[in-house]
Specification:
It is a single chain. The chain has two domains: 44-54 and 279-372, Alpha-Beta Complex (Aspartate Aminotransferase, domain 1), CATH 3.90.1150.10; 70-276, Aspartate Aminotransferase, domain 2 (3-Layer(aba) Sandwich). It is built from eleven helices and 14 strands. It has helices spanning 59-67, 81-91, 103-115, 130-138, 156-166, 187-195, 248-257, 265-274, 278-301, 323-332, 357-372, and strands at residues 3-4, 7-8, 44-45, 98-101, 121-126, 142-147, 170-174, 199-203, 224-229, 242-245, 313-317, 335-336, 338-339, 349-353. The termini are far apart. Bound molecules: 4'-deoxy-4'-aminopyridoxal-5'-phosphate (PMP). The site of 4'-deoxy-4'-aminopyridoxal-5'-phosphate (PMP) has 13 residues, from helix 3.
């Protein structure tokens, strides 16, 4: 390097044969493929468990009015006080027990950043929600998996043995479970908490469609948290909003872990407004549950196995056919479902989200054609 009176002459830019000569992704991440649901341009999209309907009439107009009052040059309310108050009011807990973030995925990531990481273990039940294991690995934790038994059920004795042996820092229990749709027995909470010193995360992304909630198990002296989302029941997948209800000490550690001002002002306003439509949403949930029962019966009448569901989707078998071929044949008929056959323990299974009655009919007619071919 030559120095002149005016300072250091920068070296000419280094031209690289490949970026890999200089920097590579962490060894423990290079195998990850990333999580995505293939999006195909079809008219009936039943692959990502969203609400089939936009928010209720009036929502967008009212939100636009409220957005007009946002102080755009200022950072948003860092602790999202009003939103947390609205959520706390709905669940009859204190706002100090609520953490909010960009979708429940960011809530899960924050929990993992705070309580998992290198040298710690995370326990997942398979088949289950793929992001639990994925985010755990991204934060550097080791993932230990427990395979479900017949009918995708969890055997309590085997679960207790597995956890006592693995001693994970975090256990994920999804109820109703994605992608199987079943609610877990509520007793699993006590069994898990008694088996290891862990934080139990009950992922309730679909709880509004289910039979029970772990919310009444949340207390300051119990290591249990519940996560929820606005992406399904609340027709707000586009806005990215999720939350956690948990002991104050856990919530406090999450606020210290997450980035400052992570949740923008518009999302906060949208969440507050959504909670003004509780009755309308309960009505919609009831309609989806009715449709779920109708669709489930009709799939079964085609001779395919259907897992009883407490969520807004159904897991069904391809009946001995190649599941990926069934998926493609549905796409050819303008229907997109989720091909789960490559997931652990799900060879031969597909998942369909419950849509509007009209969308469900298109799906059922297409499936009938494929089965009768
Ligand atoms: N948990 C489960 C079980 C889910 O199925 C999903 C969405 N597919 C999420 C969490 C994440 O939801 P979001 O980030 O949209 O709130």
């Amino acid at each position: 390097m030559r120095t002149y009176a005016l300072g250091v002459v920068p070296a000419p830019p280094r031209l690289l044969g490949s970026l890999h000569d200089v920097i590579t992704v962490r060894d423990d991440l290079s195998f990850l493929s990333g999580y995505h649901s293939p999006q195909v341009d079809v008219s009936v999209r039943l692959n990502t468990n969203e609400s089939p309907l936009p928010p209720p009439p009036g929502f967008v107009e009212e939100l636009s009015k409220r957005v007009a009052g946002v102080a755009w040059n200022r950072y948003p309310d860092r602790m999202a006080d009003q939103l947390r108050q609205a959520i706390a009011g709905r669940h009859e807990v204190s706002p100090d027990q609520i953490f909010v973030a960009n979708g429940s995925n960011e809530v899960l990531q924050t929990v993992l950043l705070a309580y998992a990481g290198h040298g710690r273990r995370v326990a997942c039940f398979e088949p289950g929600y793929q992001m639990h294991a994925q985010i755990s690995r991204v934060v550097g934790a080791d993932v230990v998996t427990f395979e479900r038994g017949p009918d995708f059920a969890l055997d309590p004795t085997r679960v207790a043995e597995f956890l006592a042996d693995a001693q994970p820092s975090i256990v994920f229990l999804t109820s109703p479970n994605n992608p199987t749709g079943r609610s877990e027995p509520k007793e699993m909470i006590d069994i898990i908490c008694a088996s290891c010193d862990c934080l139990l995360v009950v992922d309730e992304a679909y709880a509004e469609f289910g039979r029970w909630s772990a919310l009444d198990e949340v207390a300051d002296n119990r290591p249990v948290v519940v996560t929820r989302t606005f992406s399904k029941t609340w027709s707000m997948a586009a806005a990215r909003l999720g939350y956690l209800v948990g002991p104050r000490a856990v919530v406090d550690s999450l606020w210290r872990t997450v980035l400052p001002y992570h949740l923008d002002a518009v999302t906060q306003l949208a969440g507050i407004l959504a909670l003004e439509y509780v009755d309308e949403m309960a009505h919609r949930v009831a309609a989806i549950v009715d449709e779920r029962e109708r669709v489930g019966l009709q799939i079964a009448e085609l001779g395919l196995e259907v897992v009883p569901s407490d969520a807004n989707f159904l897991l069904f078998s391809s009946g001995g056919r190649d599941a990926s071929a069934v998926w493609s044949a549905l796409v050819d008929r303008q229907v997109l479902v989720r091909d789960c056959s490559g997931w652990p323990g799900l060879s031969g299974w597909l998942r369909v989200t419950i849509g509007t009655s009209a969308e469900n009919d298109v799906f059922l007619n297409a499936l009938k054609e494929i089965v009768n071919e």
